[in-house]
Amino acid sequence: xxxxxxxxxxxxxxxxxxxxxxxxxxxxxxxxxxxxxxxxxxxxxxxxxxxxxxxxxxxxxxxxxxxxxxxxxxxxxxxxxxxxxxxxxxxxxxxxxxxxxxxxxxxxxxxxxxxxxxxxxxxxxxxxxxxxxxxxxxxxxxxxxxxxxxxxxxxxxxxxxxxxxxxxxxxxxxxxxxxxxxxxxxxxxxxxxxxxxxxxxxxxxxxxxxxxxxxxxxxxxxxxxxxxxxxxxxxxxxxxxxxxxxxxxxxxxxxxxxxxxxxxxxxxxxxxxxxxxxxxxxxxxxxxxxxxxxxxxxxxxxxxxxxxxxxxxxxxxxxxxxxxxxxxxxxxxxxxxxxxxxxxxxxxxxxxxxxxxxxxxxxxxxxxxxxxxxxxxxxxxxxxxxxxxxxxxxxxxxxxxxxxxxxxxxxxxxxxxxxxxxxxxxxxxxxxxxxxxxxxxxxxxxxxxxxxxxxxxxxxxxxxxxxxxxxxxxxxxxxxxxxxxxxxxxxxxxxxxxxxxxxxxxxxxxxxxxxxxxxxxxxxxxxxxxxxxxxxxxxxxxxxxx
Length: 546
Prior knowledge:
Blueprint lengths: L2 H16 L5 E6 L2 H5 L2 H14 L6 E6 L11 E4 L3 E3 L7 H10 L25 H4 L17 H6 L4 H9 L2 H11 L11 H10 L6 E6 L8 H8 L1 H15 L3 E7 L3 H17 L14 E7 L8 H8 L23 E5 H5 L1 H7 L1 H5 L9 E8 L5 E6 L4 H8 L9 E6 L5 E4 L9 H6 L8 E6 L4 H15 L5 H18 L3 E2 H17 L3 H5 L2 H9 L1 H5 L2 E2 L1
Parallel strand pairs: 1-2, 5-6, 5-8, 6-7, 9-13, 14-15
Antiparallel strand pairs: 1-3, 3-4, 9-10, 11-12, 11-13
């Protein structure tokens, strides 16, 4: 299929959308979170009820990806009103259809956030949960059917790819990404444009692009939701990256525990090939690029790029020393670009709107938006996307609805098992790379676990250390032995058998493991310990003997 054929299809789909006979669009969240709450049964019952009422000519019912507030599911969103009903079960369907579609009188008790907000909004966008967000990577998640490429095309899908192939050189694409000041969303925050430029400069007949979807942090589900809710956005970002750096082959490495994400991404690949936006001679040009899915086997360490590369190659997933970096010698020794799911999901908006547009969002050193997975002792856990620099207080209390049961905020863990704990006195910290690092934490991939006064910070550190100990690949002694020793000492203190000498030994070990480990797993494993010691030292001292 050439460019003209695609534009004809897009024009036809947009015309069909504008002349849509349906007066209402009913979106049922069928992301993994809502599916676990029974949304597939709700979807089926809703479709049946619409037919029974004779409304199928004016009401369209579709399955979508994640809408955000996962613990309130199953969710049904009514468009164009943008009314969202929460915790829906099959017994509610008849009443919802009758009241919302026939009588035009929403059921206030079932509206999203009606259980704790003083004012439930009929238009959910007026609620602080949505009002304080800005969706770029998550745009159209929860609004389109992720299994129909036509839905993606209607919302400017593959427009950015068309633009780069016919209007931009690889150098111009890289310059646009550099101007955006986008930093990799996988955790390290390395400038995306600079990484692309490095891979571009290496001359090789074969280069690769890898999408890292091996999301292993406890409580994290950002990448899963993007892959489930808008897989073509990620695929388009990978294809643009391949054009920019000169790659012809790509791999999406997706966590094996994400079967729905794998299914929808593989379907997206098939649809894109059929449409001619992936495969040989894309849109009639000389550029060819193909993508395969590789399924991770559950090793946390394979989120580290060199371990991930080894796994794709069929080897044991263990890190290797760097340099050489993957940009020079990656997959099968060839120059390789690796970005995570959220990074690729942000590429097409930058191309469509310009790098300057993206750089104006966020803070001077942390541009754009960040997706966070809210979990823990918070009223509205789920997926959010906010401009960089949004404060922790805004996320926890305005968006997240505060602490469960009216409790008192104690700390927030950012960055997963490699991150740190931020105490209540720093609730007004800006959520950007530099501010979190200054407090002994990290941005990480976007996990954010909220804790109340019932949380034992020593036990929190022990839990994350146990996780790192179990997930260590064992290749280097500092990580393999050091995490075990630190875990045993933390366990001893939790059991109130530790001494002051044990506490001193813990701090010494933390520095040794951080500075001497081969990869990021070991280097960051002491972070929860060090941050809790920094901000909650009294809890350690209260449990040790002299």
